[in-house]
Amino acid sequence: MGDWFQTLVDTEATPEEAQELAAHVLDWLIADGFVAAERTDCVLGADAGHAPGTRYGEAVQDPDPELAKLWSNGLQITVERTVFDAGQGEPSAVTCPHCAAEMPLVDAYWSPIEETWARFADAVGSWAEGDDEPVACPSCGRTAPVHTWLWADDYFAFGHLGFTFWNWPALRPEFVADFARRLGGHRTVLLEGKL
């Protein structure tokens, strides 16, 4: 069956400000009852997270009364240089940040286009380790760091701060906008995926 997740990634937070921003947003989420203050074993891939709070339903489009019964139902906060991804599947295309040329990454049968993927594979794989490899655009010839390319389907997001909601129903657009505002108006990307 698998677990669904939504991750809000702050793509502009610096390593120096990520921890403070995480604490600021968590304080808001707890104070407004979106998540519980106590850290529990309610998330995948981390020691502990924050279970849904008494007002979590106001953050989602269609509250699910069954969410409380799931083991993985909490908020996981990641504060480290990370390549966040949507889990299963592949992004369909990537767009040059200079000339806006779009390069397809899959063919009509959703099979990866190896030649295009080869251009990005090493750069994506090494970003979390501290490298910021530039990738050359075949259209305009200019290079740009891999994290500045625009990934279709919001498949990848590169950042130092991410908030993953495990198995929550779709987040309300107003909640996502408020999140971005509380992150200082930083650009945020909402990834949705399944493991």
Description:
The chain has 195 residues and is α+β, with helices and mostly antiparallel strands. It has two domains: 117 residues, no CATH class; 65 residues, no CATH class. Helices cover 21% and strands 29% of the residues. It contains three helices and 13 strands; from the N terminus they run βαββββββαβββββαβ. It has a four-stranded antiparallel beta sheet. The protein has a three-stranded antiparallel beta sheet with strand order 7-6-10, with no helix packed on it. A hairpin with an 8-residue loop joins β2 and β3. The longest helix is centred in the N-terminal third of the chain and has 17 residues. The protein is globular, with a radius of gyration of 18 Å. The protein starts with a strand and ends with a strand.
Q: Please tell me how large the radius of gyration is.
A: 18 Å
Largest sheet: 4 strands, antiparallel
Number-wise, the strands total: 13
Could you tell me how far the N terminus lies from the C terminus, measured between alpha carbons in angstroms?
9 Å
- Report strand %: 25-35%
* Average predicted confidence as pLDDT: 92
Could you name the ranges where pLDDT drops below 50 across 5 or more consecutive residues? none
Structural class: alpha+beta
Order of helices and strands: EHEEEEEEHEEEEEHE
Helix count from the secondary structure assignment: 3
Gross morphology: globular
Number of domains: 2
Strand order, biggest sheet? 4-12-1-13
Helix content: 10-25%
